[in-house]
Each structure stands twice: as structure tokens, then as C-alpha cells.
Amino acid sequence: MRRTGLRTASGPQAMEGIMAAISGMFALGRASGVECAKAGAEIWSRLNGYRFDRTGEWGGPSGWMSCGLVFNTPESRRERLPFSREIGGRPLAITADAIIDNRSELLEQFGISSGDAPLTPDSELILRAYAKWGTDCVRHLIGDYAFAVWDKKADRLFLARDPMGSRSLYYTHSEQFIAFCTLERPLLGTCGYKPELNERWIADFLAIEGIPHETQCEETIYRHILQLPPAHYAVVQGRRLEVVRYWDSLRDIKPVRYAADQQYVEAFNRIFEEAVACRLRSAGEVGIFLSGGMDSGSIASVAAPLLEREGRKLYGYTSVPLAEFKEQQPSTVIYNESPEVMDLVRAYPNIEPYFSSLPGESSFSSIDELLAALEHPYKIFQNGGWLLSFMREASGKGCTLMLNGQTGNGTISYGVFPIHMKTLFRQGRWLSLLREMRAVSRQKGVPVRKVALRTLPVLVPYRLKAWKNRKALRRFDRYEQVPVSRSLAAKWSVADRLDRMEANLPPIEDYPDYGEDQKSRADLLALAHIGAIETKLSLAARITVRDPSRDRRVYEFCMGIPYDQYVKNGQDRRLLRRAMEGKLPDSIRLNTDSKGVQSADWLFRLGADKSALLRELSRALDEGEVLPYVEEERLRAGLRLEEGRSGPMDDSFARMALTTIILARFIQKFNTPRKEEAE
Q1: pTM to 2 decimals?
Q2: Which of 101, 342, 437, 464 has its CA 20 to 30 A from that of 92?
Q3: Residues paired with residue 100 on neighbouring β-strands, in sequence order
Q4: Is residue 438 part of a domain?
Q5: Any idea what the CATH number is for the domain that residue 153 is in?
Q6: Is there a domain that residue 215 lies in?
Q7: Which residues form the Glutamine amidotransferase type-2 domain (predicted)?
């Protein structure tokens, strides 16, 4: 085996931003490795517009791999990827997009001295783990990763993605070849397939209410290109491809039990502080998406003192509404969270806050930028633009890592009353249920009777509610708020997949108990969605997003403890409120009355673009490329209504219009090269 090249690339011609990317192509059976090298180089050439600190290529008789690195940790400067070497008589080669967080444990496991530890990059630890444990190596790795190992002796290609799906990995395969890449687009047209769109993915994308993009982890908008799901690895041997789920939180996480409540708090603090600390291992400065809520606030409250010991700052980025936005906010929400953020800054002076309303930006103006970054149509148009803008701002300040608390509601700050009440009710713990209602009454300062009346709808079985609302249910249209063509939805049996993911349901609330909600928290679809977006935005902004609330150790602890650690004695989100005492300002820690709302002014911002948006929607429908996928008459009816009224757009129609325009622009960009070839 040989390395075909190692080079450094940068310059004014480079596109602003990529953090790291890997790719490769391997022959299956007796297919030609020479062909792999040619096709693999073509895949890599499609990433030429991005700027790397270092790039490398490796080629052997059976395949080809590449990697582009941006230095985000001290050890990453020592990475030379891909590379190959023998371990225990086994010739192995690796390429990786990875940050390994349990380094000290692995260094000890492999007998690497403290003197050699700083010289040992993360990819070396991954390769040694594979040499020692084979495909089980993923059970011993903690961190954010996607990697590929070629095992010449076993004639095996091994692809893996971390349990939380923090880094994306895509692949395509035929009987003769398999190709993989961090991104989707470079794989188009490989393995003998013509570039084609996946109509079923488009149908699902248009049909799902809210921001999810797909109903299944594996599928992408491109036919023949698949996503390796979180917590999965793929083994390619001979002509056989096997995809295996190696970690299942509902199956593999063991219950966590202590004798006293305080022991849970102490254990959580140890794990959480370690999760934050290992994410401060940065080659540059550290930034954070900072809101006035508990998740990012708790992360900042742990990170800031650790950075302060090293004389370093934590750069906080907070979105605020436009100054012209004057909408009266309800008492239960907060549109501008800057006062809460400033409470954090006063507690931790080494937090340097950056507040911006990003004037001139809107969900319409950022479409092309986000389409280029995300590679496919998207529905995160409310906050996607400012996320990318803040990441680029932080990168420009020298930050190489950006912290967030994206999944905190399902881990560190989990715990809401309805689920607790439903759980007690189903367990027949009537006295406990009554005690909780009385405790809530005391906490909120409202009569017990009022609490009971609010609790009653939570306890009523869904079937009884459905029977009571049976006439309304017969009229319910699950596609009323989305632009999908009904005939397309029927063609691809979209309703079946919506049922499985419990999407577009009738407006009859069905509250889960703790066991049912655990299944939702363990769903890989949400992790895949978040991980793919974060990976691609990281690549576009040249900064790595890292989430301590999605650390596997934190996740396993939070999934393993009893529910009463989250809700008890009238207090919700109880674990984090207790753990952050003396760390997180009480204005945030003890706030139970209001919740921050990001991008509250998104419809107001669209006002300046309303005419242009309506014209583009009309033009897209007239030109027709999007018509096979959307319900034309509903969109045209909405157009007529919006053209005849002043003021902000209707929320539902704005979402349908933006989704349609984003899809139309994507299809136009996809079809343009093929039209030019045909001409």
C-alpha cells in the first residue's frame, strides 16, 4: 500500500470554509482498484472549492481514500490522514473525521506514555482500537466521529459513525464498487449510477409538518446515495455489505441507581463537567451559541471557569430581534434574551457576549447560502441563516470550536410535569399524584383545583378524546398545512411513514408516560437530522460544532436515572436546577414562568421580502419544475390571498411558500448541468 500524495492547500480562490471531510472508493470482488483511484480522485476533486489546512490521499490495489483537515484541536496538527501501517502484522489504512474524547482512557489502554500522549493524534487511537477490538472498537470510543478503516488481511472495509450521529457519513454502492464521503453531492454519478433525485424523499420532505427533513435515517434526496445512521457501522467484505446497529440506548443503557438524591446530582456534575471540559480541547478560541435558557447557560457556567484558569475567553453569540420589531410578547415567552445572557456575563466576566439582530437578513435572503451548505432542501429557515452567520463570525475571531446545547431538553434539562403526572397515573400511584398537584399549587401560587383541572386532560385516555372529537377527526386533513401533492403522497404511501413517526397528527393532545417518551428520546432520526445539519454548517463555516448535552456519557446517565430525579415536589427540570445551584444565575436556573423564543421576528423580517417572495413562488409554479411535487391550487389560492392583504404573511402559508421556493431553487440547480449536457 502507498500514499499517493500529501499536500497543503489554501488561498484566495478557496471557498470560505470546511472543517474536515473524508472520502473513498473501494472495489468489491474482482473489480479494478485502478478504476477506484480514478473515480475516487474525481470524488475528491468535487471538494476543491473548500479550504483545508492539510489534505492527503492514499491508494492501494483495492481502493482509494482521502481526507481534508482543518486544525480544531491541538492534536489535529499532528494528523496526517489518510495513513497506513501494520499493527500486530495486520496492514491497516484509515481516514477519519473525528474528535475522540476518552483519550486518557485509550492512551492507558494502549500503554502510550504521558510523554508520547501529545504526539498521538485521535486517528492513531482509532486505528489501535480497531486493531485490538475489530468491529467492536466503536463500543470503546467516545466522541464525535465518522471514519473508514481498510483491513487488507481481512479484505474488509469498515465504516463507522458515532452513537449520537454528530458527524455525517454517506455512501453509495453497486455490485462492483462502494464509495463514501462526509457530504452527499460528491458521490453523485459514482458507482455507475446516473444522478437522480429520490422522489420518495421529496414527498416525505414536503409532507412532514415542522422542521424534520426525512422519515428514515438512511434515505437522502439523491437516489442510490444513503446515509449511515448514528450508532451504526458498515462492513464491506467481498461483494457483501452489512449495516449493523451497534448501540441501542433502550437495550444497552443500564439503570443508574443511588441511595440519595444528592448522589445523583454529584454523579451528574462529574459526568457533565467532563463532557464540557473535553470539548474545550481547541486549537483556537471557543465560542458558544448562548441563549437565556438553562441548557446553553449551564454549559457556559461550566466552560467559562475552566477557560478562565487558562486565561482564555468564551465568546457568546446571541440572536436578538430587530429593533423595529414591536410585537407584544405573551407573559410566558421571552423574545429578547439579552438580559438573561448579561446575568451570565456578570457572573463570568470572561464570557465576551456578541448580540446581533443581523439586520437585512431573512429566511428568504439566506436561501442560496443555506442550500449550498446543506446540499439539499431544508426547513430550518427560521434560524438557519443566523446560525451560519454566527458560526462564520466566530470563525473569523479565531474560534475553532462552537459549543451548543441543542439536545439539552432530552438530556440535561429533561423533565416536564405532564409526563410525570401521566406516569404516576398509569402506575396507579394516586397519592403521589395528589401530592404532586399540591406541590405544584404551592410552587405556582394557584389553587389545587386549578392545577387539577389543568392535569385532567393529561390523564384522559386518547381514545376517549378521539371518540369525543370523532366528527372533527373525520374532517381532519393531515396535509392541510404542508405543500405536498396529494397524489404524490398517495403514490409513495407517505401516510404510513407519518404514522410511524407520529407526525401531522390531529390536534388532540396525547401525553406519553415516561417509558413511551424514552422511546422518543432514543429515536435516531432526530439525532441524524441534527448531526447532518451541524456537520454541514461546520464545514461551511470552518468551525466545529460540539454539544456537551449530546455526550454519550451524559446521554446514558440521563436515560438511566429514575424519572423522579427530573420532576418531584412540584419542580420540573429538577436535575439541572439542583446541579447548577451556585453556578447558573438564579434568574435562569429558577425561571419556571417563561421560555425564550428564537427568531420570534422571522415573519416580521419577511415583510421586506414579501413581494419578491410571492413573485418567485408564482414564477416557480408557472415554470413547472416543482409542479410534480406540490399541490398547485392550494399554493395559488394562498398567493391570491397574500397579494390582497397587507402586513406580515400568514405563518402557515409563509412556511409552505418558503419550502416550495427552496425546493424549486434546488431542482433548478440540480437540473442545470444535465440540461447543458443534453444541449
Answers
A1: 0.94
A2: 101
A3: 143
A4: no
A5: 3.60.20.10
A6: no
A7: 16-239
Cell of 209: 409538518
Contact 295, 409 (CB under 8 A): yes
In 396-406, which positions are buried (b, 16+ CB within 10 angstroms) versus exposed (e)?
ebebbbbbbbb
Q: What does the pLDDT look like over 527-559, one tens digit per residue?
A: 999 999 999 999 999 999 999 999 999 999 999
Query: What is the helix (H) or strand (E) element at residue 225, kind and residue range?
Result: none
- How far is CA 642 from each of CA 23, 209, 379, 604, 634, rounded to the nearest angstrom? 46, 21, 21, 14, 12
State the CB neighbour count (10 A cutoff) for residue 671: 14
Which grid coordinates are listed for 178? 462502494
Same structural domain, 257 and 234: no
509: helix, strand or coil: coil
Pure H helices in 279-330: 294-309
| Residues in CB range of 612: below 8 A, 6 or more apart | 364
The CA-atom distances, in angstroms, between 678 and each of 562, 624, 628, 673, 674 are 62, 19, 21, 9, 6
- Whether pLDDT at 1 is above 60: no
Same domain, 578 and 614: no
Judge contact between 49 and 199, C-beta under 8 A: no
Separation between Cα atoms, residue 105 and residue 125, nearest integer Å: 10
Domain, as residue range, for 609:
601-677
Say whether both 163 and 258 belong to one domain: no
The CATH number for 288's domain is 3.40.50.620
Looking at 576, 596, 616, the residue that finishes a domain is 596
Per-residue pLDDT tens digits for 57-73: 998 788 999 999 888 77
Whether 340 and 233 map to the same domain: the answer is no
Give residues with Cβ within 8 angstroms of 474, minimum separation 6. Answer: none
Residue 504 within a domain? no
Among positive and negative, which fits the CA dihedral 541, 543, 548, 551?
positive
CA 147/CA 149 separation, integer angstroms: 7
d(CA 269, CA 266): 5
The C-alpha cell at 329 is 410578547
Q: Which residues sit opposite 596 in a β-bridge?
A: 334
Number of residues assigned to the chain: 679
- Cα separation, 462 vs 516, in Å, equals 14
**E-strand stretches of 263-374:** 285-289, 314-319, 333-334, 351-356
Question: Can you tell me the distance from the alpha carbon of 370 to that of 384, in angstroms, rounded to the nearest whole number?
Answer: 7
Domain count, the chain: 3
How far does the chain reach from its first CA to its final CA, in angstroms?
A: 43
Residue 279 maps to a domain: yes
Q: What's the rounded Cα separation, in Å, for the pair 4 and 60?
A: 9
Mean pLDDT of the chain: 92
Please tell me whether residues 39 and 139 are part of one structural domain. Answer: yes
For residues 629 and 651, give the distance between their C-alpha atoms in angstroms, rounded to a whole number.
21
CA 439 to chain centre: 36
Angle between helices 610-623 and 651-678 (to 10 degrees): 50
The reply to whether 538 and 589 lie within a common domain is yes
Q: What are phi and psi of 574, to 5 degrees?
A: -70, -35
The set of cell numbers assigned to 44 is 475528491
